[in-house]
């Protein structure tokens, strides 16, 4: 497929997007765990919100995998691969409202860092498709950070 981008760049971007996909997939499972296990006075609000977050992460994963394919790459698709590549680690037995929110915010900070790095690389290489994708994700993640930080005050 020729979308007008250089092969060397596409290979580099596929590697970065696969690392990002791995982060998104590990975070997805973490948030599923928060959804299932959260306890406390904020249970109802957080249970519903975590479902929104993991559904959004699931959609993001699909969009990232499709972008990797557009760049002539192959998306990673196993948790053993994700665990090797991801900078976000599995979180086990996190259940208090405050702990789930703090963990979510820590992992979201890692997503934002990766998104900005990918956006910069894409912009430097006239890859408007990847840049647009990352720009949209950044806006969504920043809003989520703002909303969850409000819960901690």
From TrEMBL:
Family stated for the protein in its record: Belongs to the Dps family.
The residue ranges crossing the membrane are: none
Q: Which Gene3D superfamilies match?
A: 1.20.1260.10
- Protein name as catalogued: DNA starvation/stationary phase protection protein
- Which species expresses this protein natively? Gaoshiqia sediminis
A single MF term (Gene Ontology): ferric iron binding
Q: Where is the Ferritin/DPS domain?
A: 15-152
